[in-house]
Design goal:
Strand order of the largest sheet of chain B: 1-3-4-5-7-8-9-10
Order of helices and strands of chain B: HHHHHEEHEHEHEHEHHEHEHEHEHE
CATH class of chain B: Alpha Beta
CATH architecture of chain B: Alpha-Beta Barrel
CATH topology of chain A: TIM Barrel
Main location (chain A): cytoplasm
Oligomer: heterodimer
Helix content of chain A: 25-40%
Strand content of chain B: 5-15%
CATH superfamily of chain A: Aldolase class I
Protein name (chain A): Thiazole synthase
EC number (chain A): 2.8.1.10
CATH architecture of chain A: Alpha-Beta Barrel
Strand content of chain A: 15-25%
Radius of gyration of chain B: 20 Å
Catalytic activity (chain A): [ThiS sulfur-carrier protein]-C-terminal-Gly-aminoethanethioate + 2-iminoacetate + 1-deoxy-D-xylulose 5-phosphate = [ThiS sulfur-carrier protein]-C-terminal Gly-Gly + 2-[(2R,5Z)-2-carboxy-4-methylthiazol-5(2H)-ylidene]ethyl phosphate + 2 H2O + H(+)
CATH topology of chain B: TIM Barrel
Subcellular location (chain A): Cytoplasm
Strand order of the largest sheet of chain A: 5-4-3-10-9
Helix content of chain B: 25-40%
Shape of chain A: globular
Largest sheet of chain A: 5 strands, parallel
Radius of gyration of chain A: 20 Å
Chain lengths: 258, 367
C-alpha cells in the first residue's frame, strides 16, 4: 500500500485541497467528497465560530484532517499567533504556515516562515510551511522541525503550472521530507506532472474553485494525482534525444551465431 | 520622496493629446499583455477604449477570479460624529451647513454596534467629520475599543492624522484606513476646500502613506469623482495606489470610485461621470493592478452595484446609514450624503449569492 506519512498520520490520498474562492461554501462538502482528499486547508481569518452558516468549518467534515493556514500573516509573529488561535478554535495540531508580506505577487517570506516553523514545531504543531523553492531554506525548514515542505509551483492563484520545476526537483532529490507542490497548479495534467516528478502530494485550490464545475474538477484532479503517482512508482522510461529502433539493425549479433 | 513627486511629473501632462493618439490597435495590444504599464493604464482610460469595454470586462473578470475567486467582502460604515470645521464645497458636513450635529456617547456607540452586529457583519468602518475638538483622537480610540468587542475588523475613515496617531490606532485594534484625496488636481482642490485643515493638500496627500508606515493592514484611497474630469482623477488614483503598493508591499491597497451624491448645501460645478465611465475606470484598474482591492459604496444604485459584482469589485458596503446613530437611534445626526442602495445586509447577501458569488462576512480577526 502506497501511503504518505506526515506527522504520524498515514494518508492514502495525495491531493490536498483549499477552501477559498468558491462561489458558495455549500459546494465545499461535495468538492471534498469528489476529490477523495484527506487534507483540507482553510484560512483561519475566515473561521467564524459565532456564525454557524458563515463558519467555514461547518462545511468541512471531521473525517478529513483540518489544515488551518495562516493566510494574512505578514511575519513570523503573526503566523504564530494565528496558528495558536486555530488550535484554540479546535482545528487540531496541523498548520500550514503562510507568511506573505508582498500583496503584489503573494510570494512567501522564507526567513519568517523558518522562524514560525521553529516556534510552532516546538509547541507540538505538525507544521507544513509554504515556501519559495530554495534548497537552503528547505534545509533550514527541516532543521526547524517541519513535517513537510510546500514549495510553490507558480505564484498563488495564477494557474500557470509548475514554473519552478527545476528547483522543486532539487528539493525532491535533496530533502528528506515529503515535498508537497502548493500554488500555481492550474490543470489536472500539471498535478500529474508534479506527481511524476516525485512530489509526495499537491495542494490545489484556485484551479478547482474557479472552474465552472468545481465538483467534477476536483474529481479530475483526484484521478490525475493517482495517475501521476502511479507513473512515478512505475519508473518512467528514460527520455533520449534520438530515436531508438524497436527492431535494431544489429540485433542479429546477439543471436549466438555471430 | 512622496506621491507628490509622482503627481508633479503629470501636473502639466497633455492628456488631450495623449488620448487623441490612442489607437484601436494599441488598445488591442495592451489587452494582450500580461502586465501593463502606467501609460497602458491611461490608454485604457481613454475615450478610444470605450469601444473595448466588453474585451476589458472579460479580462478584468478573469483576473478578479484568479486573484479573489467568487467572493465579496461585506462591511458597513458607522458614523459616530458629524461635527466638522472644514468648508468643503461638495460635502453635507460643511461647517456652514445648518444640519443637525451629533456625536455618539460611548453608550450610543455600543447600542449602534449591537444593532449592526445582529446583521452578522464582522467588518466595520468608523467615520467622523473633521473636528479635533468634538471628536479627538482619544474619542475615536475609545470608540474603537468598544467596537472591538463586536467586530473582527475595525477600520477608520476620519480626518488625516499623524503617523504617531495612526500607530495608536493600530495599537487600539484598527486594521483598515480609508482616506480619499477627493481631487488630485491641486487647483481644484484649493477651490473646493474653501477653508479648514482639509485645505492642506500635501498633508492629505501623504495621509495614506502615513497609514502604511504605521502598519495598517489595509489602506483604501480614491478620488471623489465629479470634482474634476474623471479620466485624470482615475489615472491619479491608480498611480497613487501603484505607488503605495510598490513602496509598501505588505499593505493591502484598495481603491473606491465614489461619485458625488446629493447632499446638504449646494455645489453645482459637478463634472458628469456616467455609469459607463465608472465601469471603464474599474476595468482599467483591475487590468492595471490585478491584486488591488476595489470597494463599492452605496452611493451607487442597487441595480448598477449588482452588475458590477463580476467586474472586479472585492468589497461592498451593505445596510448603510450615513446618519450619526443611524442604525439604532431615533435621535440621529444628519447624513453626509444621500445613499442610493438602501438594501439590508440580508438582501445584499442574497443578491451576491444569486450572482454565483460568496458573501464573506469575516476576513480578518484580532491576533
Amino acid at each position: 500500500m502506497d501511503l504518505l506519512k506526515i506527522g504520524g498520520i498515514e494518508l492514502k490520498s495525495r491531493l490536498f485541497i483549499g477552501t477559498g474562492k468558491f462561489p458558495s461554501k455549500k459546494i465545499i462538502p461535495d468538492v471534498i467528497k469528489s476529490s477523495e482528499t484527506q487534507v483540507v486547508t482553510m484560512a483561519v481569518r475566515r473561521v467564524d465560530l459565532e456564525a454557524k452558516e458563515e463558519n467555514i468549518l461547518e462545511y468541512i467534515s471531521k473525517d478529513v484532517i483540518w489544515l488551518p493556514n495562516t493566510s494574512g500573516a505578514r511575519n513570523a509573529e503573526e503566523a504564530v499567533r494565528i496558528a495558536r488561535l486555530a488550535r484554540a478554535m479546535g482545528c487540531g495540531d496541523w498548520v500550514k504556515i503562510e507568511v506573505i508580506s508582498d500583496h503584489k505577487y503573494l510570494l512567501p517570506d522564507n526567513q519568517e516562515t523558518i522562524k514560525a516553523t521553529e516556534i510552532l514545531s516546538k509547541e507540538g504543531f505538525v507544521v507544513l510551511p509554504y515556501m519559495s523553492p530554495d534548497l537552503m531554506s528547505a534545509k533550514r525548514l527541516v532543521d526547524a522541525g517541519a513535517a513537510a515542505v510546500m514549495p510553490l509551483g507558480a505564484p498563488i492563484g495564477t494557474n500557470r503550472g509548475i514554473r519552478t520545476k527545476e528547483l522543486i526537483e532539487i528539493l525532491i532529490d535533496e530533502i528528506d521530507l515529503p515535498i508537497i507542490v502548493d500554488a500555481g497548479i492550474g490543470k489536472p495534467s500539471e498535478a500529474a506532472e508534479a506527481m511524476e516528478m516525485g512530489a509526495a502530494a499537491v495542494l490545489v485550490n484556485t484551479a478547482i474553485a474557479t472552474s465552472d464545475d468545481p465538483v467534477n474538477m476536483a474529481k479530475a484532479f483526484s484521478l490525475a494525482v493517482i495517475a501521476g503517482r502511479t507513473a512515478y512508482l512505475s519508473k518512467l522510461g528514460a527520455t533520449k534525444k534520438c530515436a531508438i529502433a524497436s527492431s535494431p539493425l544489429t540485433g542479429f549479433l546477439n543471436e549466438g551465431e555471430f | 520622496m512622496g506621491f507628490y513627486d509622482v503627481y508633479i511629473n503629470f501636473k502639466d501632462f497633455d492628456y488631450d493629446a495623449f488620448f487623441e493618439n490612442v489607437t484601436s490597435t494599441e488598445i488591442k495590444r495592451i489587452l494582450n499583455k500580461n502586465k501593463i504599464n502606467i501609460y497602458d493604464f491611461l490608454a485604457l482610460l481613454s475615450p478610444k477604449a470605450e469601444s473595448f469595454l466588453e474585451e476589458m470586462a472579460q479580462k478584468a473578470h478573469a483576473l478578479s477570479l484568479q486573484h479573489f475567486g467568487k467572493t465579496i467582502l461585506l462591511f458597513t460604515p458607522m458614523y459616530i460624529g458629524n461635527f466638522c470645521v472644514n468648508r468643503c464645497a461638495y460635502c453635507g458636513f460643511n461647517v456652514d451647513n445648518n444640519i443637525k450635529r451629533k456625536k455618539l456617547s460611548p453608550e450610543e456607540i455600543e447600542r449602534e454596534a449591537i444593532s449592526i452586529a445582529k446583521t452578522g457583519l464582522k467588518h466595520i468602518l468608523v467615520l467622523t467629520g473633521e473636528s479635533p475638538n468634538a471628536t479627538p483622537v482619544s474619542y475615536i480610540i475609545d470608540a474603537v475599543k468598544i467596537l472591538k468587542k463586536y467586530f473582527d475588523s475595525v477600520g477608520i475613515e476620519v480626518y488625516p492624522l499623524t503617523q504617531e496617531d495612526y500607530e495608536r490606532m493600530v495599537e487600539a485594534g484598527v486594521d483598515n484606513l480609508a482616506v480619499y484625496q477627493e481631487v488630485y488636481d491641486e487647483k481644484i482642490y484649493d477651490r473646493v476646500h474653501i477653508s479648514g485643515p482639509k485645505k492642506d493638500y500635501h498633508f492629505r496627500l501623504d495621509t495614506p502613506e502615513r497609514g502604511c508606515k504605521a502598519k495598517m493592514r489595509n489602506v483604501n484611497i480614491g478620488a471623489l469623482l465629479g470634482l474634476n474630469e474623471w479620466r485624470r482623477e482615475a489615472f491619479m488614483s491608480g498611480l497613487h495606489a501603484n505607488y503605495l503598493q510598490n513602496k509598501y508591499p505588505d499593505v493591502c491597497i484598495s481603491i473606491s470610485p465614489p461619485r458625488i451624491r446629493p447632499h446638504a448645501g449646494c455645489f453645482d460645478e459637478v463634472h458628469n461621470v456616467s455609469d459607463k465611465n465608472i465601469v471603464q475606470y474599474l476595468l482599467a484598474l483591475r487590468i492595471f493592478m490585478p491584486y488591488l482591492g476595489i470597494t463599492l459604496s452605496t452611493r451607487e444604485r442597487a441595480s448598477f452595484r449588482d452588475h458590477l459584482i463580476p467586474l472586479g469589485v472585492t468589497k461592498m458596503s451593505a445596510g448603510v446609514s450615513t446618519e450619526v446613530g443611524g442604525h439604532s437611534s431615533n435621535d440621529k445626526g444628519e447624513g453626509q450624503f444621500e445613499i442610493s442602495d438602501n438594501r439590508s445586509v440580508e438582501e445584499m447577501k442574497n443578491v451576491i449569492l444569486s450572482k454565483g458569488y460568496q458573501p464573506v462576512f469575516k476576513d480578518w480577526m484580532q491576533i
